[in-house]
Each structure stands twice: as C-alpha cells, then as structure tokens.
Design a protein that fits this description.
Layout: E1 4-7, E2 13-16, E3 19-20, H1 26-38, E4 40-42, H2 43-51, H3 56-74, E5 79-80, E6 86-89, E7 95-97, H4 98-105, H5 109-112, H6 127-157, H7 163-172, H8 177-189, H9 193-211, H10 217-243, H11 249-265, E8 269-275, H12 281-291, E9 297-302, H13 316-328, H14 335-344, H15 368-385, E10 388-393, H16 400-411, E11 418-424, H17 431-434, H18 436-440, E12 444-448, H19 454-464, H20 472-482, H21 486-499, H22 509-515, H23 522-531, E13 538-539, H24 540-547, H25 551-563, E14 567-570, E15 577-580, H26 583-592, H27 595-610, H28 620-632, H29 636-650, H30 676-696, H31 700-719, H32 723-739, H33 743-760, H34 763-776, H35 784-799, H36 803-818, H37 824-844, H38 848-865, H39 871-885, H40 888-902, H41 911-925, H42 928-945, H43 948-965, H44 969-975, H45 983-994, H46 1002-1012
Parallel strand pairs: 1-7, 8-11, 8-12, 9-10, 10-11
Antiparallel strand pairs: 1-2, 2-3, 4-6, 5-6, 13-15, 14-15
Helix pairs in contact: 1-3, 2-3, 6-7, 7-8, 8-9, 8-10, 9-10, 9-25, 11-12, 14-15, 19-20, 20-21, 21-22, 23-25, 27-28, 28-29, 29-30, 29-31, 30-31, 31-32, 31-33, 32-33, 33-34, 34-35, 35-36, 35-37, 36-37, 37-38, 37-39, 38-39, 39-40, 39-41, 40-41, 41-42, 41-43, 42-43, 43-45, 43-46, 45-46
Length: about 1000
C-alpha cells in the first residue's frame, strides 16, 4: 500500500504516494482526520460528532457514503471495520503524521508544529466536531507553548539567541506579556534597544486596541529600564566617537596657532582646510572647537551642491543665529539696519523684537549697499564684545554672491573674527585667490589633509579596534580596501566591529557602505530613505508631517540610527533636526532607491513644504527646496513656477531709472551682483522647462508662466543694452497680455518699452507707449501707476524741450506721492527722481546753483530713506551742475562719489557722463593717465547705452581734451593715439549727435570751442 502522509498542524493536507489527496466533501475529510487522531471510533460516535442533527437513518446513510468516498479518494482500504460497530485506520497503512512526531515519537516537536491544529478547517453543521477540534487545538498549543519556554530556558543556559522561540510565543498568543518581556530583555542584552522599545509600543497598541488595558507593571518597569540603558549607551557611543581622533595632530596644532595669533593681534584670521571628500576636514574642525578653552560665539553653516545656484542660501542659518547674539549682547539696532538685512534674511527681523516696531519692507524694497554696511557694523559690534568664529563647510558649493559677502566680511578691518572654511581639493573655487590679501599679510593658514599611509592605517585600525589583534596581512587588506581615506576606513572598521571579526569584505567602496546598513530595522531604513532626499538637516516636525507617524515612533527610529553613527542630532534652539553624519552615507542611501520611488517621495516632501508658504517675504527661504524636490519628482509645472518666483527675486525691479522697488544692485565690491552669465543660465533652464510643458500640451497656466518669463528676460536684456532682443520679448508679452486683456501685464510691458525709450532718447515712441499705459490706467486714477505716469510724462516733455510743462508734471507727481495715503517709503525714490529732473530743468537753463539745490534734495531723500538705487545718477547730475558753476572741487566730490556707487551696482545710466567729466577734471589736475582710463571707461558705457546725450558729451570732453593737447607735450604723449583727429572733427561729431537733444546747453559749449580753435564751424 502506498505511503500516506498527513499534516494536521497549520493548514491540513493529506498526501498519498507524494500526491495530494482531495476529498469530495468536507465531512468526509473531517471523518478521516478524526480517525487519524483517535485511531478508531464507533459508528455511533462518528454519527454523533458529524451528523448529530440528522435522523439516525439519514446520519448512518451519510456515514456509509463518507466511508465509500474516502476509499475511492485513496483508491485503497485506508479504513477498515473489524467489528460492525467499530471503524478504524487500516493497521497495514504506511502512515506518517506530524501529530505523531509532535507527541515525541519523531523529530523535534518544535519543528513540526507549523501552526494551530487544523488551522482554517471549518465544517458546516458540525458543532460537535468543531468543539472536539478546538479542544485538541488548545491541548496541542499548550504543549507547544510549554516546549517553547523550555527551549528558551535551554538557550539561555547555552547563551544562545532566544528571539526565535520568543517570537513564536508572541505569534501564538499576542497578549502573553511574559513572552514580550523575554524578547525585550533579549533585544536589550544584544544592544538592539530600539527593537525592544518598538516591541513594547506594539504591545501597548494591541492591549489598548483589543482589551483597553495597559501593560503589566513588570513590563512597564522593564521598558523604563531599557530606556535608561539605551540613553547611557548612546551617550557612551557619542563620547567614544567624539574622543577618537587620530593622525591629524600637526594640522590641529596649526589651527590652534592661527587662533592664538588671532587672539593676540586682534585681527581677522582665516584657516582654509582642503582635502578630498571623506578625508576628515569636518572632524578636524570639530576637534579644534572642542579643544578650545576660550569662550566663543560660533556662526556656522554648510554649502550644498543642490543649492549652488541659489543666492545667499548658506547665510540664512548664520543670520538666524546672529539674532540670538544680538539679543545676548543687548544691542539696540537701528530699524533701517534690521529691515534692510531682513529683506535678504527674513529671520533677522526677529532682531528688532522688543524694540520699536519697524517698517515692514516687501521683497525688493531695500538697498543692498546699506544692508551690507549694516551687516558689517553688527558683526563689528559683536566682535568687540565676544570672540567670534565663522565656520563654513564645503566652500566649493558656495554661490558667487555668498562668496563675495564672505570676502567683504573677512577683509573688513573694523571687525575681527576667526574664520574656518573647508573645501574639496581640485574644485578650483578661487577661494584662495580672493583671500590673497589675507595671505599677503600672513593672516591665512592653508591646511591640506592627505590620505593615511599604510603604517598610519595600521595604527589607526589597531587603536580603533583595540579588542581585535590585527595581522600585517589584515592591515594591508584594510589599506587596500579603503586606500587610506578616513571616511571609508572608519566605515570599514565600524562594519568589522559590528560583526566582531575581520571578515572577507569586498574591496569595493559600495560594499563597505552597504555593510553599514545590514542590521538597520525596517522602520529605520524607511526613515533613511526619506532623510536621504534632503541635502541638509531635516527638522523632525517635517518627518512627522511627511510620514504621518507619531513622534515616539519617529524618535525611536532616529535613536537607532544615531546609535549606529549614521545620523546625528543637530542643535537648534527652536526645533530638533537630524542629518547624516556624512554626505557619502546620504548619497549611498539615495542612489540605492529606485528612481520611481525617489520621485514619489520627492513629490510628497515638496507638497508638505509647499503648505508652509505664507505668501510673504519669508517664502524665499523655501523656494530653493521646492525647486529641488519638485524637479527631482519630475513635476515640471511646479518646478517652473518656483524657478520663476526665485528668478524674480534677482530681477525684482521696474526697469526704469527710479523703480518703486529697489533691485539687487547697490553693493560694496559688487557683493550681490548676479553675473550676466549666471542669469542667462537661469533663463535657459526656464526655457527648457517651458519647452517640456509645451510638448506635454498647452494650457492657460503655461501661458501665464510664459508671459512671466518674457517679462523677466525682456527687462533684463533691455537693462544690459541688448535692445533688439529685449524689446522683441517685451513686445511679445504686450501682444499676449492684450489678447488675454491682462491689464497689469499690459502696463508692465509698456513701462519696460518706455524705459527703453528713455535710455535711447526715443521721444516719439515714448509718447506712444505713454498713451497706451494712460488709456489702460484711466479707470484707476488712484493707483501708483498714476503717479509714475505723471513723472514719466514730465520726463517725456523734458526730453522734448518743453521745460515748463515738464516742471508742472514733476510737481504734480511729487504731490501725488507725498499724499498721506501713499507709502512714502515705497515711493521715496520716485519723489527724489522728480527733484532730480527739476534740477535738470534748472541746469539746462544754466541756473546751476538752483539746480544743485534740487539735486541735493534728491540726494537727501535717498540718504534719509536709505535707498541708494539712483544715488550715483543724482551725484552725476550734481557734478555737472558744479562744473557749470566752475566749482571743480565740488564737482570732483560729486563725480567720485557717483563712480563709487556705480561700481557697487549694475546701473549704467549716465555713468559715461561721470567718467568723461572725471577724465576732463583729471586732465586739469595733471592726472593724464587717470584721465585716459576714465575716458576709455566712458566710451564703453556710452556705446552700451546708445543714448545721444551721453554720446554727445563724450565728443564734448574729447574736444576739450584735444584743445588742451595743443602746447602740452605730456598730455599729447598720453592721448595722441586715442585723439588722433583734429579738434573740428570732435566738435562736428558732437554737434551732429546733440541735434537730437536740442535743449541742452552743451551744444553751445561745443560751438564756442570750435570758434576758439579756429575750426571754421558755426
């Protein structure tokens, strides 16, 4: 007879000769299982247990049918009836059951118990059978539980792991707290504290949900004990990790010497730590800070590759910290300082807390030059009271504007601080170049870290793994695998420490990293996957919002990762944040995730961050993050949206001489100027995004984005003197805005075309565009546009030579903007502009003294309101008036001040005038080489502007210098090549150009000069 195998634990099954036996109906199968367990039974017993609800005749008939079906299923007499009243298993059967094995007649009992007796087996109308089945199930389960506890006891005696039998106990009875305690204790004893705590939380949840009770006192006490142990271990591991420092003592000594020199001299000193990624730059810096015995204030920040294109991003945390230092130093800051700095760094607005309420400035309503001066002044004040240390990591990722700000801080002689910067070797950041003034004065220390040698790796590993004895061969393997890089060396040795032995690790860096995450829990890995999306520290509140988990769960997972040295908590006064201990760990985790998964997570993160937008100036802090996450999520529409918003921050000005908002321009040594190449790169990126959206299908939102882009790029190109392309783009914007009846954009587009006309002196075109704006604005006479139109119409009349009408309109504009209902701060520069133009009217009438009074009013408003956007222009005009008075000293003062501010901005209107007149004054003073340089520069800016008045004045100055060359060999030696034509040529060219500006008195000067020189011109 074929061998028969019966499985009663877990899902039941019967096999005959290796093939599964299928019973025709459930009660026949139940009858067979009953006899397998009891070996035999009377017919009455079987009838009662399976068909007790039926009449005796029907029940016995069903029994006979079942016996027949069983025989047919096996095709053999597996059941026999030695007596008519009894049915039993055929003694001749070759029968094997897991029940027999579990009862001690086969292999180990625990191995055969694969689940509850007859798990999932149900019999319809078989209450008696079910009662018997449950009684047997409990009987066997109790035996199984007893065996598990015996197994745990045996394993404890043999010092073996008890997690498997303990987990089985919990699987059998999820309310068995004794089993939970055994497993919690085991996890704690093996260092898996977070697993133990996670298990406790699971128990609490089950008890609360199912029974509405709390864990037993004994279990709760164990939980507290494990919490305490884990905290001690975390502190111990942190202390051990922080205490270990090897092989960089010489470099550390150099940092200490530089710091001592800083303390002794009171002069700013800088240390630049260079080296490849993972070489130990940050660790060296941290050890230096820990070893300092001097009380100091630390301003620290990190530069990230993903934020390289976003201006000033590294400085935001520094200015948040600066608020605290200001309050600790009990400094009372001028409102203008705080408001101007807060325009760039919104968190700095808190520095005015407790002081008189400051005027809130919207984005763009600020002056960069004044903000820089304020920043330097505040740092200087703090540095007089406290020892100030500025630390910036990964300078190779710092944007150029941030780098210029750092340069201004380090080279300012009114403040003293100690600077430490780290940078990767080979990135050509130019850091050392712009710090050359410090280097020349021996105030820059360059520290470059090298990889460890074979001998150093051996000593490092021996000290790090003091519990293991390493052979020279093993040291060689460690050296070959890590190549002496500190990061890979530590990760390699951490993996060895976790395993307790030096195993056969691959020599691939990827496998070194992979080994660090082998024992991380599932929840820990999920959190790491999420953390890896962020290139900077992550507030725990953000993790809570994204995951939807409670704080306890998140904190336990974070503590597990911190204990393993994968992440670290960062100190923030207002919130808890975490970050990877090294960027290479973050990059590894990030790159291990499938692209589709990363995209989903990036989208989720971006949507959570987007909810934090408040439609206020502080939103700029989120734009770079939103661009990064939406871009990585493949969300082109949202990426475009925030790229446009971010770019608008850089170009936030109305492109006229006197905008209602101040642009990103006035700044010492061009600190905040965005290069034209960088802006063009931004434009190309946006054009690419627009093209991708067009390919996906056009809609109204794409059209809105396209119009925003046309406005941004068009006004920028006009500003740069690329009039052809700039006006084409603005013209396209005007057309699209007209089709959609977008009044705001129609006005903006035509205003840009008006500014183009101002720059190029196109009076007729200017009148046309003014008419368009006036018509669109006719139903909104109270708007700011009305006041701007009054000034622009006045300027148009001035450019036409209609001086009386121009003066009337300028005065109307002043009254409009001086009205109590208009924000004086916002439109201060418009009022100053009107006074400047009134000065122009006086100057054109040769009333130079009255003109100077008007110019000084314009300058006074700029100084009072701390808006220096057009300060250079006002000084240029004042310089011209002073020249008209014959006051050369005063003219030189105005013009030099104008050049100083031109050099601090990207404004070029009238710059050629200032440069050319300085050339003339330099000739008068005998500074011929300076004069030559000024004239060269003047020509460059005049060519760019293409303005007839500026070009005409260049010819006037050339003519005046050419006249002075007669009888002056020294002057001729300098200018003979540049001014190689006769006086008549320059007079003739100047007069021809100035025909377009009939109201200017400079034409008369040219004619007089021509007559004096005997040129024959009239």
């Amino acid at each position: 007879m074929s061998p028969i195998k019966v499985q009663l634990f877990g899902t039941p099954a019967v096999y005959a000769d290796g093939a599964k036996v299928f019973f025709p109906f459930r009660k026949a199968e139940a009858l067979f299982y009953y006899l397998v367990v009891n070996r035999q039974a009377s017919r009455d017993e079987l009838v009662n247990i399976l068909w007790g609800e039926l009449t005796e005749e029907t029940a016995r008939k069903n029994l006979r049918n079942a016996l027949y079906k069983i025989k047919k299923a096996f095709n053999a007499d597996v059941l026999v009836s030695p007596r008519k009243a009894v049915i039993m298993l055929n003694p001749a059967l070759d029968l094997e059951t897991d029940l027999a094995q579990f009862s001690g007649r086969g292999k180990t009992d625990l191995e055969v118990y694969q689940g509850p007796f007859l798990q999932g087996f149900l019999v319809r109308d078989g209450d008696a059978f079910e009662e018997w089945m449950l009684q047997k199930r409990n009987q066997y389960q109790e035996r199984y539980v007893k065996l598990l506890y015996e197994e745990i006891k045996a394993r404890n005696c043999a010092q073996l792991s008890v997690d498997e039998p303990a987990l089985r106990l919990i699987e059998v009875d999820e309310f068995d707290e004794k089993a939970y305690r055994i497993l919690m204790r085991h996890y704690a004893d093996t260092g898996s504290y977070n697993k133990a705590l996670e298990l406790y939380e699971r128990l609490c949840s089950i008890l609360e949900r199912e029974l509405g009770v709390q864990p037993e006192e004994q279990t709760a006490a164990l939980h507290l004990e494990i919490l305490h142990k884990r905290d001690l271990v975390v502190k111990s591991v942190k202390a051990e990790r922080e205490a270990f420092f090897f092989g960089r003592q010489q470099e550390l000594n150099r940092l200490c010497r530089a710091f001592n020199a800083f303390l002794e001299t009171g002069q700013t000193r800088a240390v630049l730590i260079l080296g490849e990624a993972g070489i130990g730059k940050t660790r060296l810096k941290e050890v230096f800070f820990n070893n300092l015995r001097t009380d100091f204030c630390l301003l620290e920040a990190y530069c990230y590759q993903a934020e390289e294109e976003f201006l000033l991003k590294p400085w935001h945390p520094i200015f948040s910290r600066l608020v605290t230092l200001v309050k600790e130093a009990e400094l009372t800051l001028p409102v203008a300082w705080v408001s101007n700095i807060a325009a760039f760094f919104p968190s700095f607005a808190l520095a005015s807390a407790g002081q008189p309420e400051m005027e809130t400035k919207e984005p763009g309503h600020f002056d960069y030059q004044y903000a820089i001066d304020a920043i330097l002044s505040i740092l200087a004040l703090i540095s007089k009271k406290r020892t100030l240390i500025l630390a910036l990591e990964d300078l190779q990722w710092m944007d150029t504007v941030s780098r210029n700000l750092l340069k201004n801080i380090l080279l300012n002689r009114d403040l003293k601080l100690f600077f430490i910067g780290t940078s990767r070797s080979g990135y050509g950041t130019g850091t050392e170049g712009w710090l050359s003034p410090l280097a020349k004065e021996d105030r820059l220390e360059r520290v470059e870290l090298q990889r460890f040698s074979l001998e150093e790796v051996g000593e490092f590993a021996t000290r790090y793994l003091s519990e293991l004895k390493l052979t020279q061969q093993q040291v060689r393997k460690i050296f070959d695998d890590t190549e002496g890089n500190t990061f890979f060396l530590i990760e390699y040795l951490n993996s060895v420490r976790d395993k307790g032995r030096l195993g056969a690790m691959s020599n691939k860096a990827l496998d070194i990293l992979k080994s660090r995450f082998v024992d991380v829990s599932q929840d820990g890995m999920k959190l790491l996957n999420l953390l890896s999306l962020f290139f900077h520290r992550v507030p725990v509140d953000i993790l809570l919002a994204i995951t939807g988990k409670d704080r306890q769960e998140i904190m336990e997972a974070l503590e597990e990762l911190e204990l393993k040295g994968i992440i670290r908590e960062t100190a923030n006064p207002d919130k808890v944040s975490v970050e990877f201990t090294h960027q290479k760990l973050r990059e590894f985790i990030y790159n291990q995730q499938p692209v589709f998964k990363r995209r989903q997570l990036h989208e989720k993160v971006a949507l959570v961050l987007e909810r934090n937008l408040r439609d206020e100036h502080r939103d700029i802090l989120l734009y770079s993050k939103l661009i990064y996450h939406f871009s990585e999520a493949g969300n082109t529409a949202k990426t475009l949206k925030y790229r446009l918003k971010n770019l608008n921050l850089y170009l936030d000005y109305c492109h006229e001489l006197f905008p209602t908002v101040i642009d990103f321009s006035g700044k010492p040594e061009k600190t905040f100027i965005v290069s034209n190449d960088q802006l063009l790169k931004y434009f190309r990126e946006i054009e690419s995004l627009l093209a991708n959206l067009d390919a996906a299908g056009d809609d109204l939102q794409i059209l809105d984005d396209r119009m925003s882009f046309l406005y941004l790029k068009g006004r920028h190109l006009i500003r740069q003197g690329d009039y052809k392309e700039g006006t084409r783009l603005i013209g396209e914007l005007a057309r699209l805005a007209g089709e959609r009846d977008n009044r705001e954009l129609i006005i903006k587009a035509n205003l840009q075309l008006i500014y183009y006309c101002i720059q190029t002196h196109r009076v007729a075109d200017m009148k046309h565009y003014l008419g368009v704006v006036t018509q669109v604005n006719e139903n909104d006479q109270a708007s700011e546009t009305t006041g701007i139109l009054l000034r622009l119409n006045g300027l148009c009349h001035l450019m036409s030579g209609e001086l009386t009408k121009a003066e009337e309109l300028f005065n109307q504009s002043i009254r409009f903007f001086s009205d109590a209902n208009i924000t004086m701060e916002k439109y201060a520069l418009n009022i100053a502009a009107c006074y400047n133009y009134l000065g122009e009217i006086r100057r054109y009438g040769k009333e130079f003294a009255k003109a100077l009074n008007c110019y000084d009013k314009a300058l006074g408003i700029s100084e009072e309101k701390k808006v220096f956007r057009s300060y250079s222009l006002f000084n240029t005009c004042a310089g011209q008036a002073a020249l008209g008075l014959g006051d050369h000293a005063r003219a030189f003062h105005y013009l030099k001040r104008a050049i100083k501010h031109y050099e601090q901005s990207d404004l070029i209107w009238r710059r050629s005038v200032a440069e050319s007149y300085l050339a003339l004054l330099s000739v008068t003073a005998g500074g011929y080489n300076d004069a030559y340089r000024y004239l060269e520069s003047a020509e460059k800016f005049a060519d760019k502007m293409q303005n007839p008045y500026e070009s005409g004045l260049i010819y006037l100055v050339k003519a005046q210098i050419r006249a002075k060359m007669h009888g002056n060999p020294e002057l001729s030696a300098v200018f003979h090549q540049k001014l190689d034509r006769d006086l008549a040529f320059y007079c003739r060219q100047g007069l021809e150009v100035l025909k377009q500006v009939p109201y200017c008195y400079e034409s008369k000067i040219l004619k007089e000069l021509a007559l004096e020189g005997g040129t024959g011109l009239k």
